[in-house]
Amino acid sequence: MMAATAIATTSIQAEVNDSSNPVLAPSGLPYNVLPFSKITASDLEAAVKEGIEYQNKAIDAIVNQRSIPTFENTIVAFDRSSWELNRAILALSNLEGACGDEAYQNAMQNVTPLLSEHEANLLLNERLFDRIRQVYENRDKEEGLTPEDKRLISETYKSFANNGANLSGADREKYRALTSELSDLTLKFSQNVTNGMKDKARRMWVTEAQTAGLPESIKVAAKAEADAALAEEGKSNDEGLYLFTVFAPSYSPFMKYADNRELREKLYRLYNSRNTEGQFSNIEILKDIANVRLEIARLLGHKNFAEYQLSNTMVATPEAVMEFLGSLDSAYSDPMRKEIEEIQNFARQTQGNDFVLKPWDYSYWADKLKNEKYAFNDEDMKPYFELNNTIDGVFGLATKLYGYKFKRNKDIPSYHPDAEAFEVYDKTGKILGVIYTDFYYRPGKGSGAWMTEFNTETKDDEGNRSVPIVSIVMNFSKPVGNEPVLLNPYEVETFLHEFGHALHGLSAQAKYASLSGTNVYHDFVELFSQFNENYLTEQKYLDTFAKHYKTGKKMPKELIDKFVNASQYAAAYACMRQLGFGFLDMAYHTIETPLRASQDIAAFEAKALEPVKVFDAVDGCLISPQFGHIFSGGYAAGYYGYKWAEMLDADAFAAFQENGIFDKATADKFHKMLEAGGTVDPMELYIEFRGKKPTIDALLHRDGIK
Q1: What single DSSP character describes residue 71?
Q2: SS3 content of the chain, % helix, strand, coil (to 5)
Q3: What b/e readout covers 211-224, taking b as 16+ CB neighbours within 10 angstroms?
Q4: Quick one: which of 270, 313, 351, 428 is 20 to 30 A from 176 by CA?
Q5: Mean pLDDT across the stretch 83-112?
Q6: Is 413 helix (H, G, I), strand (E, B) or coil?
Q7: Mean pLDDT over all residues of the chain?
Q8: Phi, psi of 519 (to 5 degrees)
Q9: Residues 633-660: what's their mean pLDDT?
């Protein structure tokens, strides 16, 4: 009967090859990349529907066999049944986020309930789960299985069991309804956040006199923003106005450099009151999300959602998360209070003894004190971080560590004129994958920065590798006229971070898609991105690319030293801010009784943040309604993972500091983790690399706390 399965699968693949949909049909392009110029939102929507149909046919072929369930005819067949659907979903979600086109948003909205229903049908397919369960129970009896094969069996079984497959009768239908409702809610939350960022009410017009303190480069970008906005309305910018928005390239520098305290407060309130009221409010939606998650957890036998969610993580339990966060709170709280007191006392030297530091003052005065203490301004580094040189430097890190080579290929089409494709080769010259870079902010584009993929690395039975196709997306300011794009060190850090995720996807050497690349536990995935950030303070690395865009001279050692010294500045505040997000996440996902319709979210949030509070709450300003990471971004009960990953990356980089930051032997061991993806338990991988479990000691040393 394995032959019958193979025939059925081949027949389905033939249908895909004959598909007229440009998303699913072979493109004839290098690496079968998508023919973006031929693809419309309706094509993407149709491709998702076709992908669902193809997978359903493959599942029917699996469950209608008469043969005894085996690894090959059940687990492998299931893992490979979703290729078409994954291609369609990845394409649609990536284009929606990167392009922000309303047509893509509508397509995503249309397919989301279909995907929720399809996923529920798969996970609650009793015949399919019965075969998976039999393979799982007999995994030690089946001959010829590799450790990766056994890992796939266990992870497949757990994914079904953790998603209601062991439920029966009315409970199954209840689970199906809840997951569908949750999918709709999280999509609505995400789209509200995106649309709230674009809301014209979240913009601030500024006159020339009100730009005091702002660097010229920021003013040029804000002027261009104003010109473009007025041009859309058929007006000219005769008054020479500047436009600032709640998008990061605009918001962050204004809060750091603008002398006008009233305008800093105004922009702070515009930013932090997003999604609290009006058509894009997420207040009631986030309550519903938290309550539905609690109901799902209870249905599956857990007392809260965090207990359920953390069962497949390195940290394992809510109690362990709270212990970890608490250990950092204990280490950083006193240094944080001293930092805040020092900044406030510094401001009082010019503002008077009655000056009280507010949240809209922090970036401004912290930056001024940093400059006085360290004579360092991150603007001083920008001339050395010209974008093209920085691309060479960031890509060059992978060359130094792993021998990778990058080659721009203009024959590979892109989804937007701003995005470019590069081929990536391993140290032997063999193609490793393709990476798209999409650096510039544009209206409608999702805020922040992220890495994603269009194709996940896999291998067929003959060992032929399907190359990964990944993308890294930023929101850097676009060049104005002939001016070069100069990045501040924190933008370079973001680039290094997302590139670390990209390397995780590109380096994958797994056989099965569900274990490949970034398909690892949530509290392990950030290790590889945050590890890269360590190199930004290493002169030996900076010397490879950080050259003045006019003179070509390397970044002076004294500037690097100032940056290194300043990198520890306000580390306690930064940590406590992250801990606040972690505590808030755990507060929503450890509830054991549902949030009430009348629940005061401001009071709930304030209580959650009390252990790590830096400033008093500001009326009308909340984190929760815009907290996409936990309410729509896959980090529910997992935000602690960022600090957990900091512990891991500091501990991992300590190995390089001990042996040399480009030490080949150490890099080879680290590279093994990159290649492994989810094929091995992450703690086992890490102990093999480091020789011990991670501790917070290296993090405390790096931050200057210990």
Answers
A1: I
A2: 60, 5, 30
A3: beebbebbbbbbbb
A4: 313
A5: 94
A6: coil
A7: 94
A8: -80, 70
A9: 94
d(CA 691, CA 511): 27
Sign of CA dihedral 367, 372, 378, 380: positive
How much of the chain, in percent, has pLDDT values that exceed 70? 97
Residue 423's SS3 state is strand
Task: Return the bridge partners of 355, or none.
Answer: none
Confidence tier at 15 by pLDDT (50, 70, 90):
low
Residues in Cβ contact with 262 at an 8 Å cutoff, skipping those fewer than 6 apart = none
Cβ-count burial 300-329 (b if 16+ within 10 Å, e if not): bebebbbbbbbeebbbeebeebbebbeebb
Per the rule left: phi > 0, alpha: psi between -120 and 50, beta: everything else, 704 is left
For residue 211, give the nearest of 257, 246, 248 by alpha carbon: 257
Question: pTM for the complete prediction?
Answer: 0.80
Q: How many CB atoms lie within 10 A of CB 558?
A: 10
What average pLDDT does this structure show over 628-655?
Answer: 94
From first CA to last CA, the distance across the chain in angstroms is 63
Cα separation, 444 vs 644, in Å, equals: 32
Answer positive or negative: Cα dihedral of 165, 292, 182, 289.
Answer: negative
Cβ neighbour number for residue 22 with a 10 Å cutoff: 18
Quick: pLDDT tens for 554-569.
Answer: 999 999 888 888 888 9
Could you tell me the two tokens for 88? 């369609």
Per-residue pLDDT at 18? 66
Q: Please state whether 595 falls in left (phi above 0), alpha (psi between -120 and 50) or beta.
A: beta
The confidence score (pLDDT) of residue 124 equals 85
Q: What is the DSSP letter of 73?
A: I
pLDDT of 652: 98
Query: What is the spatial distance between Cα 254 and Cα 213, in angstroms, rounded to a whole number?
Result: 9
Sheet holding 469-476, edge to edge: 405-408, 419-425, 431-440, 469-476, 450-455
What's the CA gap between 286 and 268, in Å, rounded? 22
Asked if residues 599 and 622 have their Cβ atoms less than 8 Å apart, the reply is no
> Residues 380, 561: contact at Cβ < 8 Å?
no
Using alpha carbons only, give the angle 129, 135, 138 rounded to the nearest 5 degrees. Answer: 140
- Is residue 646 classed as helix, strand or coil in its secondary structure? helix
For the segment 121-162, what is each residue's pLDDT rounded down to a tens digit?
Answer: 898 899 999 999 999 999 999 999 999 999 999 999 999 998
Rounded to 5 degrees, φ, ψ at 680 are: -135, 145
Q: Which two tokens stand for residue 657?
A: 């500091």
183-233 pLDDT per residue, tens: 999 999 999 999 999 999 999 999 999 999 999 999 999 999 999 999 999
The letter for the amino acid at 40 is T
The 3-state secondary structure of 197-254 reads HHCHHHCEEECHHHHCCCCHHHHHHHHHHHHHHHHHCCCCCCCCCEEECCCHHHHHHH
> Position of tokens 């309706």?
42
The amino acid sitting at 379 is: E
Q: What is the 3-state secondary structure (H, E, C) of 655-688?
A: HHHHHCCCCHHHHHHHHHHHHHCCCCCHHHHHHH
How many Cβ atoms from other residues are within 10 Å of residue 68's Cβ? 12
Both tokens of 63, joined, read: 């469950």
Share of the chain above pLDDT 90, in %: 87
Nearest by Cα to 391 from 425, 413, 420, 412: 420
Distance CA 519, CA 327 (A): 28
The neighbour count for residue 564, using CB atoms within 10 Å, is 15
Give the helix ranges, DSSP H, for 100-169: 102-123, 126-137, 147-161
